[in-house]
Amino acid sequence: MKVSGALPFLPLCQRLLPSRLAGLSMTFLKATALEIVILAGHLLLYPSGMAQERRAPLPEMPSPEDATQLPTEAKPPVVLLHGFIDNRSVFVLLRRSLAQHGHRQVESLNYSPLTCDIRTAAELLGRHIEEICERTGSREVDIVGHSLGGLIARYYVQRLGGDLRVRTLVTLGTPHSGTAVVPLASAHPIVRQMRPGSPVIEELTRPAPGCRTHFVSFWSDLDNLMDPLETARIDHPDLLAENVQVSGIGHLALPVHPTIATGIRQALDTPRTETPAATHTGGLTVA
């Protein structure tokens, strides 16, 4: 009886399944096409981002006599950190978006493509941040890291005491638990460090009591460089983290898409309070 009772639903399932698959396929095709367009554009911009950016003089603050022009609260500098075999040119659009919405101090850092160790890159990041704080007079910074850049920043925050300097760390498509994609790329030492179970990934699972930094992780359901997809989430009992699932775009679009830029600005501009460590989840649909 149970089998015969289920039979009338089979035609309905047969009608619904192709339509759902068609919708999924169309979303995937759109995301893939966007990735190709972004890759082409990024290849054109790549040479312009190979050198470290020049540190322009900071804009003058409004006169104290003109109270109407004074900002209600100064925003800390934002440090942008690119992914593997990339450079600061990936952040051209995000940097412009941040600047247009009140972030006066935005700096993109390059680390060498010959970098072979996440720990070494994290130490170098720490020295850069100390220099930025000294130069700008700011006590802390915010960081936005794409892919490997987010992992380097997290190691600095969690393992090198960087939580004293980093107020908010936003990661975009970062393999927090390691990614198994492209096995042939394991010839590079830093790729091996991004594999599940590597010593670096294991270090990030260790206790981090009292970590002060707020984490916001954007991860996409169409990110072809994250295997499994959920590896781009931050799941750690000692970290105050928010995981934002993005639907409809791939890995390369995360630091470029205007909807993600809006989400990043909101993450950086949200007032922070000292609360017990907790993990929150959210969602963001692009397509």
Structure description:
This protein is of the alpha/beta class and 287 residues long. It has eight helices and seven strands; from the N terminus they run H-H-E-H-E-H-E-H-E-H-H-E-E-H-E. The protein has a seven-stranded parallel sheet, with helices on both faces. Helix 3 crosses helix 8 and helix 4 crosses helix 5. It is globular and about 50 Å long. The N terminus is likely disordered.
What keyword list fits this structure?
seven-stranded parallel β-sheet, 37% helix, 287 residues, 8 helices, alpha/beta, disordered N terminus
List the helices and strands and how they pair.
Blueprint: H1 2-6, H2 9-45, E1 78-81, H3 92-100, E2 106-109, H4 118-136, E3 141-146, H5 148-159, E4 166-172, H6 189-193, H7 199-204, E5 214-220, E6 240-247, H8 258-269, E7 279-285
Parallel strand pairs: 1-2, 1-3, 3-4, 4-5, 5-6, 6-7
Helix pairs in contact: 3-8, 4-5
Task: Write a short abstract of this structure.
The protein is of the alpha/beta class and 287 residues long.
- N-to-C series of helices and strands: HHEHEHEHEHHEEHE
Q: Give the C-alpha Rg.
A: 21 Å
What's the helix count?
8
User: Could you tell me the number of beta strands?
Assistant: 7
- Oligomer category: single chain
Q: Which consecutive residue ranges, at least 5 long each, have pLDDT under 50?
A: 1-17, 59-72
Coarse shape: globular
Give the strand content: 5-15%
Q: Helix- and strand-based class? A: alpha/beta
Could you give a short account of the major beta sheet? 7 strands, parallel
- Give the helix proportion (percent range): 25-40%
User: What's the pLDDT, averaged over the residues?
Assistant: 83
Spatial strand sequence of the major β-sheet: 2-1-3-4-5-6-7
Distance between the termini: 43 Å
